[in-house]
Amino acid sequence: MNVIATVLTFLVGIEHIGICFLEIFGKPEMQAKAFNMDLDFVKQPAARISMANQGIYNGMLGLLLILVYFVFKASIAFTVWQLLLTLIVVVAIFGGFTATKKIFLVQMLPALLALIFVTLQK
């Protein structure tokens, strides 16, 4: 199960790095479709800046999920992963209720599965 927990956590990290690139560098048409937003809204400078700001947080979170594996011993890494994955689940629940229900499936479910396997590892 250690391998499954690690792989799932890495996938969540990679997913958040991908979200980062979409939020920072994605074309407005792709962003509007991915985040269920109006294209005219996404094209506004303030929305672009806000989305890029959110993107950098997602990218750093994804990078941190991966780096934990290389920086900490296993017992500490699993504790840090629990904390980070719980944060993602909570934020995804909020996003699912306030932004789009798709977040429940795309962000919350993978993080929740990883969290379950990481917790079973401890």
From TrEMBL:
Pfam families attached to this UniProt entry: DUF1304
InterPro entries per record: DUF1304
Lineage top rank: taxon: Bacteria
Alphabetized UniProt keyword annotations: Membrane, Transmembrane, Transmembrane helix
TM region(s), chain numbering: 55-72, 79-97, 103-120
Entry annotated with the keyword 4Fe-4S: no
Descriptive protein name: Integral membrane protein
Organism: Lactobacillus amylovorus subsp. animalium DSM 16698
Lineage: Bacteria, Bacillati, Bacillota, Bacilli, Lactobacillales
